[in-house]
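Sanity check

After download, print the first record. It should look like this:
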Amino acid sequence: MEIRLPRLGEGANSGVVAGILVKEGEKVRKDQTILELESDKAVAAIPVPEAGTVAKISVKEGDEIKVGDLILTLKADGGKQEIASSQPPTQEVPQPTMSAQRGKEQPSRSPVPQIEGIPLAAAPSLRKIARELGIDLTRVRGSERGGRIVLADVRQYLAELQKGALAPPPPTSSVATVSPPDHVDFSKWGSVRRKKITSIRKTIAQRMSSSWNVVPHVTQFEDADITDLLALRKAHSAAYEKKGGRLTLTPLIIKALVRSLQQHQMFNASLDEGSGEIIYKDYYHIGIAVDTEQGLLVPVLRDADKKSVLDISLELEDLAGRARDRKIAIDEMQGGTFTISNQGGIGGAHFTPIVNKPEVAILGLGRGALRAVVRNKKIEQRVILPLGLSYDHRIIDGADAARFITTLVQAIESFDEKELALAGRGSKKKPAKKGKK
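Expected structure tokens:
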């Protein structure tokens, strides 16, 4: 019997042989997959219509064949019983069983019988995915003709595993008890001290774990020359102190950051995972990570684009102080569009901050340090600030990050001194108490 390529479907008349799953002299059963054909639409499994012995294979991997081309020649044995007896006994697909303890359907699967020397009926790309995910395809039941496994079958298998994993544990009883988690006695190696995890630390851990597990992080590193910026800061510090403010580096970086966000609005956006939409925000609320005794808190400086450097410096000092004293309100730590984590006052250089979800990017500032830099073919001493920009790679590409951080460096290095002007600005004076001069 000549086995030829059957019609594959509407508009699919040819393909490339991706895999040959039998060899000459091998006995095959009816509907067994003998060949995988890759077309521009999918990888199709080609089954054999009758049982027999493969006499000759007429194609090889990589061949392009079309409907009607000869695949192989099959020799009928006249001994179907003999063929059947040489194969593992066919097992019925087990149905979901009802757990007496949980009262819920649980998947019950056993390995699919596999003929020695014949790969599972699945596309090469699907087998690769299974290897990367650690999935045993012999436990996945194929729904296509000849038992071929497709992506939908793998998804169903994973859904059943997840359903079983998320099912509530059975109620405890005198018969069955749940083993306690492993406990390591560290005191047997030396003196130890124990301290309860605070609720703030638990919240931080939960949020950081959630962000790290959901957001595919990438960090872009760069250096900014802040020599001139520090000179401006020094020149205006005294005037700011007279107004009740402290001119630190952070307010200046915030102004440069906002200018950059206005040019690259993707970094001031959020991903709505439910609707599959990107939310572009027309406001600029900058979160500032504050190191406190209880843990890292992130109060939000609102409308940074509408405030002067003096206004920002005054508000930052107020937010940071109340955060350290645990007097910051919850709503004052919500609604941020971008976050800055500044470790410059502590030390360290480049680091990789974790994105503060649902924001899509965060800027990490290290400690500025004197370095030997070549400028105009001459070696000079310059103060260099290390930057680390972590971003959500689901909606931001590397090229976008490179453009953004380049814009930010330029904004820092060419900071406009007019931004530091104090004319008509200042902190409000407290009203004099009545009855006193």
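If your output differs, re-run the checksum step. Summary of this record's structure: DSSP finds eight helices and 21 strands in the chain.
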